[in-house]
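pasting for the record
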Amino acid sequence: MEKEKFEKQENFDVMLRRFFREVQQSGILTEIKKRRFLTKDISRGKRRYIARRKAEVRRIKRGY
């Protein structure tokens, strides 16, 4: 967890923005999003194949 110290004269909005920027730069949120759902280890090729199929289905649904 990121710990940020703030100055007494610092505005709360500025402190909050600085905190979120530090968290984003450290990569914590992206790691949490990756681990949100348990996924089986599948090969890179199969993952790409699944992504292509999903994109194709979306394209067909939307009429492109």
